[in-house]
Design brief:
binds pyridoxal-5'-phosphate; CBS-domain; 15 helices; 6-stranded mixed β-sheet; alpha/beta; 4-stranded parallel β-sheet
Length: about 475
């Protein structure tokens, strides 16, 4: 064995932390304040929860609650599980994770890939219900010998992670050059740990928590009263009880955001800023923008983004999922299939064989009253498109003869798109006067032109 190579970390746990802070430049154009984001998804396990996983388990070993050969048990929405599983892989421990069934498939698969056992519990039951993931985690830890129930909700090493590590790192990076710190809340560890540290260092800093509609946390913080929790879809944000990690004395203000605006903002973060983050990041930015709009003078707002977009590929970043759940409703964030349906297009399209002549194409277009004609080979593969405009001039100038093969008159001014794609993906092509050939399972099923989109818009919105 040699000494550790210069520049290398001893293992993946040692690579946690040191994530960058960047400025948002486009999403913020309508506000006077500046928003900076801490990219916690750049941790090796893809979230800020890598930190609490490593820190809570280091402490458990120190305190003797996690013993050699022990089993780590946790109720986790996924991210903490990854942090714990990573630490367990490095240090040689077994893990069992208990998840609510609303969690994305990616998160569940990911934990199983670490070799962990995953138990999935129903979402819509009260925490004290024996089927809830809180109850199941607790019961497992009581029945499995030599097990350690991490309990990120009430284990105060969670908020200490952020007090001793995440917040000092941000303070060191920025030298305290910000006015407001904001983060979404779940267990309360991030906001409470960072809040306490920043308040000690910067007496004028404002700490603002971002909660979601349906959660009870912000309501409790503002009124001291418990209310009934409602179902929501955002993952990692909000709670239906108040975990011990909350330190409300260090939280000055609250913003509340909904599922839909959060998901749309998550997608904008990627499209407009190139930031591939999870749904709680969209929630955080919605909250930060709401807060910024109320400020009397421009401030520097630092927002911690908890996790990566990878874990939401089948949900927030999936057009079908967004559309099916009613989260896409702008005129252009609609799927092509829905546009075609609204226009009552019956999918019966005229095509012509690639063996046909220019004369035959003109006759067919004239007879059917159509301006463009896709040309296909005997296997149904699109070979090109003939359009009125590309035919007219050469025919008038005598460049083409009626008997010439149709391929001489092809225009490549078309785009093929899938039926499930969003209208916004073809908007540019249509503006360039291209025709969109709509495909399903590699077969041509329809044609979408600029006139179709105009018709669709006139039916769906007042302009
Ligand atoms: C994606 C995501 N965002 C936000 C949070 C909230 O952070 P905290 O639990 O530190 O309040 C969590 C916590 O599980 C999370 O997984």
């Amino acid at each position: 064995m040699t000494t550790l190579m210069t520049g290398a970390r001893a293992n993946v746990v040692e690579a946690i932390g040191g994530t960058p802070i960047i400025k948002l430049n486009h999403i913020t154009k309508d506000i006077n304040s500046d928003i900076y984001i801490k990219l916690e998804y750049m941790n090796p396990g893809g979230s800020t929860k890598d930190r609490i996983g490593a820190y809570m388990l280091d402490q458990a070993v120190k305190e003797g609650t996690l013993k050699p050969g022990g089993t780590i048990i946790e109720g986790t929405s996924g991210n903490t599980g990854v942090g714990l599983a990573m630490w367990a892989a490095v240090h040689g421990y077994k893990c069992i994770f208990v998840l609510a069934d609303k969690q994305s498939k990616e998160k569940i698969d990911n934990l199983r890939a670490f070799g962990a056992k995953v138990v999935v519990c129903p979402t819509n039951v009260a925490p004290e219900d024996p089927r809830s993931y809180y109850s199941v985690s607790k019961r497992l830890s009581e029945t499995i010998p030599n097990s350690f129930y991490v309990n990120q909700y009430d284990n105060l090493h969670n908020r200490m992670t952020h007090y001793t590590w995440t917040a000092p790192e941000m303070y060191e990076q920025t030298k305290g050059d910000f006015d407001v710190f904001m983060a979404t809340v779940g267990t309360g560890g991030t906001i409470s740990g960072c809040g306490r540290y920043f308040k000690e260092k910067m007496p004028n800093v404002k700490i603002v928590g971002i909660d979601c509609e349906g959660s009870i946390v912000a309501h409790y913080a503002k009124t001291g009263e418990m209310c009934e929790a409602k179902t929501y879809v955002l993952e990692g944000v909000g709670e239906d009880f108040i975990p011990e990690n909350y330190d409300f004395d260090n939280i000055d203000d609250w913003e509340i955001v909904g599922d839909k605006e959060s998901f749309l903002m998550t997608r904008r973060l990627l499209k407009e800023e190139g930031v591939y983050a999870g749904g709680s990041a969209g929630a955080a930015i919605c909250g930060a923008i709401k807060y910024a709009k109320k400020l009397e003078e421009p401030k520097k707002i630092l927002v911690l983004l908890h996790d990566s977009g990878n874990r939401y590929a089948s949900k927030i970043y999936n057009d079908d999922w967004m559309s099916d759940n009613g989260y896409l409703d702008s005129s252009f964030d609609v799927q092509i299939k829905d546009v075609l349906q609204m226009l009552n297009k019956n999918g019966k399209i005229e095509t012509i064989s690639d063996k046909a002549t220019i004369g035959e194409a003109i006759t067919l277009m004239d007879k059917k009253g159509i301006s463009q004609l896709p040309c296909i080979d005997e296997n149904g593969v699109i070979k090109g498109l003939v359009a009125e405009k590309t035919l007219l001039k050469p025919v008038m100038m005598g460049e083409f003869n009626k008997e010439d093969n149709i391929s001489l008159a092809f225009t490549m001014n078309y785009k093929t798109i899938n039926k499930n794609e969003l209208l916004s993906n073809v908007a540019d092509a249509l503006l360039q006067k291209e025709v969109a050939l709509v495909m399903e399972d590699n077969k041509l099923v329809d044609i979408l032109t600029d006139i179709d989109v105009l018709q669709y818009l006139s039916k769906t919105r007042a302009y």
